[in-house]
Amino acid sequence: MRRINANSLNTKSKMLIHSEFTAAWWLKNHHLQTIYPALSRKISFLPHYQRERLTTPDDDFIEVDFCGIGTQPLIILLHGLTGSSQSGYIKGLQQILLSQGFRSAALNFRGCSGMPNNKARSYHSGDTEDINFLYKTLREREPNTPLGAVGFSLGGNVLLKWLGEQGNSVDLFAAVAVSVPLVLSICATKLDSGFSRLYRKNLLKELNDYMQAKLIHLENIGSVEEAIKIKNLGDLSSIQSFWQYDDQVVAKLHGFNDVFDYYQRSSSRQFLKSITVPTLLIQAADDPFMTAAVLPDQDELSPSVTMEIAFGGGHVGFVTGKNPFKPDFWLEQRIPQYLKQQINIG
Question: Cα dist. 69→26, 111, 147, 280 in Å?
Fold first, then answer.
């Protein structure tokens, strides 16, 4: 299995650069980088924080958590698989963005806000309808406000795919995508090996719980046809891999022929060449959710996309700092830095 070797990258190109990130000495292991922030990061309060429910074109709903008031630039935030607007990396970034003059709008993908949505359909790595709906809603409300977007993991894949689909028709000053599963089939296979199987086990359990909660909710509100769609998926408790889950659940619920069709159509790597918004893609060389094979060649990147590779960082980790009792979350430095650079250029 080929490893990501940051030393082999051609950093003379503006589109491909080495990251300045250095892992904390007490979190050198990529699994510790991944697990530590997910378990330890708790942010209980943010000022000027408000949730809004938006009715979608298919008569369902999404919930968006806004942070900040006024007319400052507004950043759309997209969480990862089984995450939400309450995930530590989302709320932490909202806190920092607010302190640096940005408002934010954290999208909860369908059913991820703490309340199951009203349709059998859920969310997946290639579903760009809801971010497009949110973008249009915000742009109609604030036609002159500078808008940006940041996506993590699954949310990063959704963001990159959407940017590629939209091309010149989207009006954003910048975007950032972090720890993106650029080729879904490779990532699904990687999670079937070694310690990464622990992530797979936990994620699949959370997804199973998500679907069970959805079924109960649909039955409680009397949505018989939608509940039947969930029941027709069969027994989900025996699913042991993402290949199985995505074939039995995601593909069937969302109109794909099978898991191969889903992975092929939804992987964001093929959309990078069509992106026109200034975009920073941050990947870790030791990400336990993927291998080097997901990384695009330089000729697959549009001139608007910069790919930044860090030697460490794990998956949506990137914890640095000298003091274990005062960790620094490097993404909360790098992301606002890039956004401010781009808005000043614009």
Answer: 38, 26, 14, 26
pLDDT of residue 60: 98
Whole-number pLDDT of residue 14: 62
Q: Is residue 319 part of a domain?
A: yes
Nearest-angstrom CA–CA distance, 336 and 95? 11
Distance of CA 71 to the CA centre of its chain: 26
- Position 231 in a domain: yes
Q: How many domains does the chain have?
A: 1
Q: For residue 327, what are its two tokens?
A: 């960790």
Give me the phi and psi of 310, to 5 degrees please. Answer: -100, 145
Q: What burial class does residue 52 get, using C-beta atoms within 10 Å of its C-beta: 0-12 exposed, 13-18 middle, 19+ buried?
A: exposed
CATH for 213: 3.40.50.1820
pTM over cut 0.85? yes
pLDDT at res. 15: 83
Distance, in Å, from the CA atom of 86 to the CA atom of 79, rounded to the nearest integer, reads 9
- Give how far Cα 176 sits from Cα of 49, 97, 210, Å: 22, 13, 28
Whether residue 9 has pLDDT greater than 80: no
What is the amino acid identity at position 293? A
The percentage of the chain sitting over the pLDDT mark of 70, rounded to a whole number, equals: 96
- Is 336 a member of any domain? yes
Provide the annotated active-site residues: 153, 287, 315
φ/ψ region of 92 (left if φ > 0, alpha if ψ in -120 to 50, else beta) reads alpha
Q: Examine residue 1 and state whether it is found in any structural domain, yes or no.
A: no
pLDDT attached to residue 40? 85
Give the chain's radius of gyration (CA, Å): 19
Residues 189 and 266: their CA atoms lie apart, in Å, by: 16
pLDDT in tens, 50-101: 999 999 999 999 999 999 999 999 999 999 999 999 999 999 999 999 999 9
Which letter does DSSP use for residue 74 in this model? E
Q: Which residues pair with 305 in a beta bridge?
A: 279
Which range marks the domain in which residue 98 is found? 6-345
Q: E strands, 68-204, where? A: 74-78, 103-108, 147-152, 174-178
Considering the chain, what is the average pLDDT of its residues? 94
